[in-house]
Write a structure and sequence with these properties.
210 residues, two-stranded antiparallel sheet, 3 domains
């Protein structure tokens, strides 16, 4: 711990650890997906306990825990994976039971670009994590309601999430000769950015700790 290479070494070791454990088990999982210290596994239910014991017998200092699907659904990272009667898997956005739907308030002292980024990030997550088109529509409606409750105007949300078609005659991107990072001050920073942009200076704003 403390060394810059610690994370890399830990990931390399766990990759080798998992490959060795799976190669030596009698009943191999149908699917094994790993991200950092979380894994998503599909295995016949009769072999689940034995597989967990096999993993924990590889190295005394490495202990795996297990969460089993409930009502044909299980969360993995930010995704909720569900299994229908035909065995097909569908995905949607997962929220913890403690999730409060609170995001950066629209009237907070932050640049508009930060607020646009929050809206875009939430909608992009819904698009990429949800597999059913009908579920995507429901998720977007939910996000719209949640954002409005956080003070975001409906017109602002619609403008940020509006799909624009790429134009053939796209204007060339402005090239800046330098960049400056300044504290954000509402009402002043926007004017300052326009003035500096005319001089070929890109302006990046940062918000102070609240």
């Amino acid at each position: 711990m403390g060394s810059p290479v610690s994370t890399v070494i830990a990931n390399l070791y766990m990759k080798e650890f998992e490959e060795r454990a799976i190669a030596t088990v009698t009943y191999k999982p149908k699917i094994w997906k790993q991200y950092v210290d979380d894994t998503f596994t599909i295995l016949d239910k009769d072999y689940v306990d034995g597989f967990l014991q096999h993993l924990n017998s590889q190295q005394p200092t490495i202990h795996f825990t297990m969460e089993i699907e409930k009502d044909h659904t299980i969360p993995f990272l930010d995704t909720s994976v569900s299994r229908d009667s035909n065995g097909l898997l569908t995905t949607s956005v997962y929220r913890k039971p403690t999730h409060t739907d609170q995001y950066l308030a629209y009237d907070s002292h932050h640049p508009q670009s930060v607020k646009r980024g929050i809206v875009k990030c939430l909608y992009d997550r819904a698009k990429h994590l949800t597999s059913k088109p009908s579920s995507i529509s429901e998720e977007k409606k939910r996000l719209s309601s949640v954002l409005v409750s956080n003070g975001y105007p409906s017109s602002f949300v619609r403008k940020v999430t509006k799909t624009t078609r790429p134009t053939a005659n796209k204007e060339p991107t402005q090239e800046f000769k330098s960049t400056v990072v300044l504290p954000y001050m509402k009402g002043v920073s926007e004017v300052l950015r326009r003035c500096l942009q005319q001089q070929g200076v890109r302006t990046v704003f940062k918000s102070d700790n609240s």
